[in-house]
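Quick start: what a row looks like.
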Amino acid sequence: MTLITRHSFIRMTKLTDVRGRVDYISNPKRQEHLYAVWGTAKPEYWEYLSRQAQFEFWRSNQKTGKCIEARELIIALPESLQSKDPEKLLQLFAATFSMEYGVDCVAALHHNKAMTNYHIHLIFADREPLEKTEVRYASRNMFYDENGRHVRTKKEILDEDGQVRPGCRILAKGEIYDVKWFSGRKEIFKSKEFLPEVKRRFTDLINSCVEREEDRLRVFNPEGPYLPTKKIGKNNPLAEEIRRDNELRQEWNRTVDQVLIAGGSQEEVAAFKKEEVVDQVAETVRKNGRKPELFADLLRRAIAILKEFLAILMKEEKAETTRELQTKAKGQTAQSKRVEKKEAAEAAELRLMKIRPIHEKLCRTNRKLYALQNQQQILQKALDGMPHSLFNRKDRKALQERIDGIGRQIETCRTQLEFIPTQYGFGSVGAAEAEYRSAKKQIDQIRNGQDNRDGKIPSGNNERPSVLEELRKNRRDTDRVRYERKTMREEAAL
């Protein structure tokens, strides 16, 4: 059975009109495919919540920003859950959230217009209702200007003739000036830990509901070596920009797969991603604001360094393959002489035997892909150097056809790299390679222990220094030298 692991999609948004949003998700007249609605509070609850949030925002006298009345989670569900009772399914998710975080919520189960996205809208209050409504009375006359702001003295609302200006008002002593139905906002909903936590909870809940293994989901790990792609919503004005951004992210992810197969470690690539992509982007946004073209330049630079690392690993892989063949031949002779064989050793060897063919298949495909990429690069350089003249038109066309043919072979190899791990039950290339390295490390530890018992001296620590870190430093030094030379030329020209 082919198992393709999918990532869960759970997004949170802040609502500035909670009453309108509740009506939108729960009104059959506004939704074409509405299956169920369930909530823990009456409709007037959301009106009171809105009034208090707006009053507090008005009283804070903020010059910018919008009033946040409530929050909403959008939870994508596997299509196989359509077989479940929609009302019970929706109640399970909403009630679980309400009990876990101690707030009221309303939820609706939908399909989109194209019937391709089965999902839940869950709107929740970020405050708790008070057991008793707090009513405050004015202990003295209170004065408000044209904007409704409280001022200290009556003089501040009078005109030149001593009359109260139009729009200003006086609240007499003993009248109600504030009603509070809810507590302050709960800190957990404002913390960075909330969304990752709720993603894990709902992903586990989804997995407990599905019956087929291929419908199980997992939470994307932002600390890993891969980059997430962005969803392009309907009628998104930035659709083309997001599409180009996703293409770059996919190129990064495919290069990461090749690096992991060739022997690079997930930890090393993840650390490189954080330093060269995540941290650099954060610094760029802080200095220059959000500029997509700067992110694209940073990512292209990081991909170039990663490809240099891949080239070094591919050279090392040839030597490693030769050493493994020699070690295997010697090991077969040594194993035939070994009398004692513990159960742990047998289990470790069986584990390695199962994962090794997958690793070797990935390595073969990766070598083929790398060779095709190099060949395409050579042909592309030849095409770029060929003059755009009438006499070279035929040659340019033939060369372009060869490049296009190699491009199709490259896409086939990339598809194979994605398919091979899922064919054997792994969610990704990274998961398959992690299992291979874990199995290999386990059997190496057992063999080193046996060598110690036999009086042999095991090989020392063969850990490779961080070549990726060296490449990154070299690239930065090169960029710095180029910048200094450019500055010197500009100064000399003045």
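That is the whole record. The first strand starts at residue 6 and ends at 7. The chain has two domains: 6-132+185-218, 241-330+342-456+467-489.
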